[in-house]
Amino acid sequence: RATLLLSRCLLKMVKGNIIVPEDILSFCCNGLQSSTSPPRAREPGEREEAPGAMASPSPARNPTEVQMSQLVLPCHTNHRGELSTGQLLKWIDTAACLSAERHAGCPCVTASMDDIYFEHTISVGQVVNIKAKVNRAFNSSMEVGIQVSYEDLCSGKHCSICKAYATFVAQGPLGSKVRLKPLTPQTEEEKIEYSIAAERRRMRLVHKDTLKDLLTRSPQETELETRDGSGAVPAERTRVESVELVLPPHANHQGNTFGGQIMAWMENVATIAASRLCHAHPTLRAIEMFHFRGPSQVGDRLVLKAIVNNAFKNRWVPVVGVPFPPSPRPSAPSSLLSGSMEVGVSAEAYGQEMSISCRHINSAFMTFVVLDQEGHPRTLPMVAPEPGDGERRYREASARKKIRLDRKYVVSCKQSEVPLSVPWDQSNKVYLSYNNVSALKMLVAKTNWVLAREKEKVRMYTLEEDKFLSFRIEMSACIPASRAFSLLSNLRRRHEWDSHYVSAELVQKVDDDDMIYHVVSQKLRNENKPQDFVILASRRKPCSKGDPYVVAFRSVTLPTHPARAEFTRGETLCSGFCIWPESEEMCKVAYYNQVMPGYLNYVTTNVAGLSSDICSTFEACEKFLLKNKEDLISRLQDF
């Protein structure tokens, strides 16, 4: 009450042009708390708050992190009272764009979006929580990681919806590119995302080539299926075309259409096309990786076209890491079939004169299902493609489905959920290489390593985590990092310094970065025959300054090299080298190996002997590097 009276007096003094003393003004603005209560002692480590600031007990977070919470209202939902996926895409793109602009300090546009798998639907009245932050900045583009979850305000339940990665490009005046400042990761999670972002970028760049390669090498797998076409629906019946006028609310402050708005419009026409096939209300389950080919501006007419490319009937087998359907049916017959369909959708931009040639903005492929009352996918009608382009789209949809399943299984699964020896083929080679390198980078980024032994220049660390025991052995060597990288990535020379290796045969040179070897090692204790391995070796040069050279190893399965009676087939989940330049003539070499549970008994009973053996092997590795430092033949093998 006293504060109110003083405020009224202050107002009268201001109206009467009476000068107000500064101490009275401060007293009226800050209230009586300071005069009636003693100042509260701050806790140790607590920062002094600025006047009017909200308390923030949590530690300082990533400066690029953006958090968005949206209450799902009826205007955001479809006829089932579920959040429209198009609306969710708009929110995702907005949060990611704001995060990118925080780092760039200038306007940014959406360049691409990786695969998105929607694990659950969101109902009206629930809250969507979106967290976005920049994982890594390259020259003029950056990767933004997005996590989406929903919150039920009544029950307090939280559930993950999807995880996505978007690429944004910073734009200067007149659309010129801006060179971005580097990002320095702080936490272990940020370091992992930072390191693997380079692998995801590499995978995006070869995405289109992967599809072309599969169609070229395996045409039989994507031929039209032999079916009874009596009940097939002509694909032409599912065709949809719609036009949208880009207005100021659809665009940013530079007049460029929001990427999320374009995605929302595309999802709308794709849903209509899917509905025309199944005569029901479909649910969007996945959006395949796509790229924006160019911008559109306020005043453009966007023509959106969609058509069902293919409908799939797949024997449903529950797979680790795949959340659909929500619960298995133990009593269901083995012939239970589930269905999904791929809808292709494109966006083209025109000016005011529609007759002028269009600008291609984006193409995307969306996977829909139709759920029954129990939430399981229903069987869908077959699609009869049109001759020519329709048959091409039909075959490409089959190829994309295979690639999509491989990518989801290999890339999205946790490292412990991927089988040790994944079958190698043309459709999953890019994703196995990604998994191989990213698994090693995740191991490198771990922070809780414990020093177990130090012998002269060789240091050995251990890491116990879940059911895995990992080793890290490192040393400094007087050799350029690029030379060490060349020597250590050639498994055919490993027997020269590693006594455990007997031989390594190059089975297949996939490309300059990935090779498959058949390795024979010495007999293990209590074994009467040697071990053999089929190993994928993936090597990477640094993506930017500060990155290491990487050589990663993991087991794969090749039909040409099955297990043989004269060997004990061994498997390795994650191992390899990281080499950091320390100067022009010095580098730090670190070897990592993640030990499987079956090896733990041997480790626990031979800790002293094992560590001594590992250190001796690494000392031999250093001698090998120094001996071959100026080897001309090895120099010629550099790439």
TrEMBL record:
<dbReference type="GO" id="GO:0006631">
    <property type="term" value="P:fatty acid metabolic process"/>
</dbReference>
<dbReference type="InterPro" id="IPR029069">
    <property type="entry name" value="HotDog_dom_sf"/>
</dbReference>
<comment type="pathway">
    <text>Lipid metabolism; fatty acid metabolism.</text>
</comment>
<feature type="compositionally biased region" description="Basic and acidic residues">
    <location>
        <begin position="40"/>
        <end position="50"/>
    </location>
</feature>
<dbReference type="InterPro" id="IPR040170">
    <property type="entry name" value="Cytosol_ACT"/>
</dbReference>
<dbReference type="GO" id="GO:0052816">
    <property type="term" value="F:long-chain fatty acyl-CoA hydrolase activity"/>
</dbReference>
<dbReference type="InterPro" id="IPR023393">
    <property type="entry name" value="START-like_dom_sf"/>
</dbReference>
<dbReference type="Pfam" id="PF01852">
    <property type="entry name" value="START"/>
</dbReference>
<feature type="region of interest" description="Disordered">
    <location>
        <begin position="34"/>
        <end position="62"/>
    </location>
</feature>
<feature type="domain" description="START">
    <location>
        <begin position="449"/>
        <end position="608"/>
    </location>
</feature>
<feature type="domain" description="HotDog ACOT-type">
    <location>
        <begin position="62"/>
        <end position="174"/>
    </location>
</feature>
<dbReference type="GO" id="GO:0052689">
    <property type="term" value="F:carboxylic ester hydrolase activity"/>
</dbReference>
<dbReference type="InterPro" id="IPR033120">
    <property type="entry name" value="HOTDOG_ACOT"/>
</dbReference>
<keyword id="KW-0443">Lipid metabolism</keyword>
<keyword id="KW-0378">Hydrolase</keyword>
<keyword id="KW-0677">Repeat</keyword>
<dbReference type="GO" id="GO:0006637">
    <property type="term" value="P:acyl-CoA metabolic process"/>
</dbReference>
<protein>
    <submittedName>
        <fullName>ACO11 thioesterase</fullName>
    </submittedName>
</protein>
<dbReference type="GO" id="GO:0008289">
    <property type="term" value="F:lipid binding"/>
</dbReference>
<dbReference type="InterPro" id="IPR006683">
    <property type="entry name" value="Thioestr_dom"/>
</dbReference>
<keyword id="KW-0276">Fatty acid metabolism</keyword>
<feature type="domain" description="HotDog ACOT-type">
    <location>
        <begin position="236"/>
        <end position="374"/>
    </location>
</feature>
<keyword id="KW-0719">Serine esterase</keyword>
<dbReference type="GO" id="GO:0005829">
    <property type="term" value="C:cytosol"/>
</dbReference>
<dbReference type="Pfam" id="PF03061">
    <property type="entry name" value="4HBT"/>
</dbReference>
<dbReference type="InterPro" id="IPR002913">
    <property type="entry name" value="START_lipid-bd_dom"/>
</dbReference>
